[in-house]
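Question (not urgent): is this output format expected?
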Amino acid sequence: MDVVTFGESMVLFQPLGDAPFGHAPLFVRSVAGAESNLCIALSRLGLSTRWVSRLGTDPFGDLIESTLRGEGVQVVAARDSSAPSAVFFREFGRGEPRAHYYRSGSAFSRISLEDYRSDWLEGARHLHVGGIAPALGTGPLEVQRALMLEARERGMTISFDPNLRRKLWSEARAREVLLELLPLCDVFLPSHEEIDFLFDEEKVTVGESFKAVSEQGVTLLVLKRGSSAAFACTHSRTLEVPTFAVERIIDPIGAGDAFAAGFLSRWLEESKPLETGLSEEVLLEALTRGCALGALATQFRGDWEGLPRRGELEDFLTGRETVRR
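Got this back:
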């Protein structure tokens, strides 16, 4: 097993077409969640992935599980007959899409240390976690912390994407918890805005950002600066790769998860990624792959539906045209 993730996935409903949310007569449904998005992306690129979660014994839980299994993701999710699987609605309009969550009291939010199993990490090389699960309750936070601690004891590498969601908790609590978990990861994958939020002050340079996180024990900072560039920073080097220009963004949601998957897919090709995976060549290739997946993710509605398989990614990176007919 290459990568294990932990988090909640939801059934997503979006208006069909461009009608305003309150006037849309029809909705299309899908599945979405930062960690499952990453699992699907990695699976399509040929890595083996395991998604650890908790679902209700309802049709929504069935849909989430069957969708992920259909994408080659190993699902390890207990089913809770007393709580529902989460759903949310996404509204497109002026500016950024808006999310309306219905996840309070969900099956995942009720997970606790009593549900924890060490075999979730059995045979795995890498653990990837985010900042959304800890926002959903004390139980998810305790389980994620336990996973990170055990992964460290097993000698696994750990990546952490803060995935800040202000709708889910207060800013003070978000900052407190994310900074508490930060020392437990090797690779940190924030946006520039998330760095400024965590340290409550503007970090003008990438070097300043790395100094702040390295003092917390982080080995590798992978920093996203919107549509302009991405950076990889270690104690010995800072590297920059420009993003790929796209003519039109159809749906920006999920681009960050795709970027993380692209970066990790290359970085984890190294047998000892904290050593050989910190070379300039590897980091540049990983950043390029991350930027490519991020760009491709914006070209389709939905969080993961447009993610490429390895051959499609290679065609995109080399500029080859795909024969359509």
